[in-house]
Amino acid sequence: MSDVLPITKIPRHGLPPRALVVGDPDRATAVAESLEDAVLVGQNREYRSYTGSWRGVPVVVSSHGVGGPGALCQFGELAEAGVRTFLRLGTAGSLADGITDGDLVIAEAAVRDDGVTQQLIHPEYPAFATPEAVVALSRAAPEAHRGVVWTRAAFSPLVLTLPMADYLAARVIAIEMELSTLLVFAALRGLRAGGVLVIDGDARPEHPDPSAYDPHRDVVAAGVARATRVALDALIDVEGAE
C-alpha cells in the first residue's frame, strides 16, 4: 500500500488534527506563508496541502478546488490522514443589505444545494456548523455577520439564474459553493466543522451585470487577509479539537 493517499497525494497517516481548507491552491500557499515551518506535504490536480504551526499549534492547510464533489474527495482523505476539525475559508456573494465587499460571514448552517450531499444522506438532514466552531470563529471575529448561507453548485454569476426570492425572504445571507458539503460530511463522520467567508460581490439579481463580477479587488484581498488570521486563530481555539 502506498504511503500517500491517491487523490490529494497527502501522507496516509499522521497529519495534525486541525485543518484549514480553501478553494484556491494559491490561497493555500499564501496561508502557508503565514505559518511556522510550513512544508508542502501533497500536491495533485487542484489539491495542494501544507503542514505547519500557527502560534505553536500544528495545523494543515489544504486546497479543494471549486465545487462540492471534488472538495468531498479532499475532506475524506484529510480525515483518513488524521484531521478531526475542519474550518473552511472561502469567498461568497452577499444576499443581504448591510453585508458588503470585504465583510466576513460566519456560517451557522447552510442550504444543501451543493449537488453532492443528496448522494450521502436524505435531503431533510441539515447542514449545520459545529457549535464550538461557530463560537471560536465569533470570538476571533466579533464584527463578522452570522447566519445561514446557501451552498449552490451553479454559483457563477454568469450561470446563476434560479429565482432566489424564497431564500432572500428566509434571511439567507450569502451564497458560495462548498460549505454544506463539508458540514454534512463532518456531521456524518462525527467530526467538527465550520466556515468563515469573505464577501466578494453582491449576488442579488437586482445588482449589476454579472459579467462585471471581479473577486480580485483590493477590498476583497484585505478581507481574505483578515479572514485568514481569524480562521487560523479559531482553528486552534475550537474546544475539543483533539
Please characterize this protein's 3D structure.
- Its EC number is 2.4.2.3.
- This is Uridine phosphorylase.
- It catalyses: uridine + phosphate = alpha-D-ribose 1-phosphate + uracil.
- Pfam families: PNP_UDP_1.
- InterPro entries: Nucleoside_phosphorylase_d, Nucleoside_phosphorylase_sf.
- The mean pLDDT is 93.
- The longest helix is centred in the C-terminal third of the chain and has 18 residues, at 218-235.
- This protein has one domain: Nucleoside phosphorylase domain (Rossmann fold, 3-Layer(aba) Sandwich).
- The two termini are 27 Å apart.
- Helices cover 27% and strands 30% of the residues.
- With 242 residues, the protein is of the alpha/beta class.
- The protein has helices at residues 25-32, 68-80, 131-140, 165-169, 179-189, 218-235; strands spanning 18-22, 36-44, 47-54, 57-63, 85-94, 104-113, 127-128, 145-152, 174-176, 192-202.
- A hairpin with a 2-residue loop joins strand 2 (36-44) and strand 3 (47-54).
- Strands 5-9-8-6-10 form a five-stranded mixed β-barrel.
